[in-house]
Amino acid sequence: MNSLQIQFREQICDRHSQIDLYQLQELFNISAFWAKGRSIEDLGIAVANSDPVIFVCNGEQLIGFARATSDGIYRATIWDVVIHPKYRGTGLGSKLIKTILNHPRLKCVERVYVMTTCQQGFYEKIGFQPNSSTTMVLHRQSKLDSVTTEEVQLQESIVG
Ligand SMILES: CC(C)(COP(=O)(O)OP(=O)(O)OC[C@H]1O[C@@H](n2cnc3c(N)ncnc32)[C@H](O)[C@@H]1OP(=O)(O)O)[C@@H](O)C(=O)NCCC(=O)NCCS
Q1: Ligand 1 center to residue 134 CA distance, Å?
Q2: Strands (E), 44-107
Q3: Model confidence over 27-71: pLDDT tens digits?
Q4: pTM of the prediction?
Q5: pLDDT tens by residue, 72-108
Q6: How far is C-alpha 28 from the chain's CA centre?
Q7: Is the CB of 78 under 6 A from ligand 1?
Q8: Where is the N-acetyltransferase domain (predicted)?
Q9: What domains can you pick out in the chain, each with its CATH number?
Q10: Which of 36, 122, 135, 157 gets mutated to test ligand 1 (max ligand atoms within 8 A of its CB)?
Q11: Which H/E stretch holds residue 114?
Q12: In angstroms, rounded to a whole number, what is the distance separating the alpha carbons of residues 67 and 70?
């Protein structure tokens, strides 16, 4: 890892994106079953409306991403956490989450949520606790045309 040029960067929360949305789309396509097939336009909207947006680069290559939405005091939710498969298991995911949690926008928030299908152990190591009793969801028109039925069912099982 010492020979790599790992950098944590923050997206300035406006519509002039610093992050390469094409690389983000590719990272999701290879690493995030719930975020496959997202369009560049929609990714730009999600990034512009999230704060903070933290991403990890090795040189110019995007290798990690996470974003959060928050009211700044009571509640926040972390979304779309992903580390490129080649770079997993070296502490980057944990550092990414800690960077989000310590961000000025989130560090005073009373409760921080994350929804996860199978990474509970990863979040528990950072201090999150299981919380199966409070989450509900309203399914509206989705943009899942390019996602398989199996993946949709898996997504629904997150909140089912
Ligand atoms: C989940 C993910 C972000 C973790 O990133 P990572 O860089 O591999 O994680 P780290 O190397 O920082 O792991 C930190 C610790 O958590 C542990 N850990 C990682 N994933 C775990 C899991 N699923 N269950 C239990 N422990 C886990 C590691 O062994 C490590 O333990 P240690 O501190 O004792 O050495 C990465 O596996 C990933 O991108 N997965 C695919 C996308 C995904 O599922 N994202 C989560 C959506 S909610």
Answers
A1: 24
A2: 53-58, 61-70, 75-83
A3: 999 999 999 999 999 999 999 999 999 999 998 899 999 999 999
A4: 0.86
A5: 999 999 999 999 999 999 999 999 999 999 999 999 9
A6: 10
A7: no
A8: 6-150
A9: 7-159 (3.40.630.30)
A10: 122
A11: strand 111-114
A12: 10
Among candidate residues 53, 79, 77, the one with its CA nearest the CA of residue 134: 77
**Residue 17 binned pLDDT confidence (cut-offs 50, 70, 90):** low
Residue 14 has pLDDT above 60, yes or no: no
* 111-114, strands of its sheet edge to edge: 6-10, 53-58, 61-70, 75-83, 111-114
- Closest by CA to 84, choosing from 125, 34, 136, 23, is 23
- Ligand 1 centroid distance, CA of 87 (Å): 11
Rounded to whole angstroms, how far apart are CA atoms 158 and 81?
A: 15
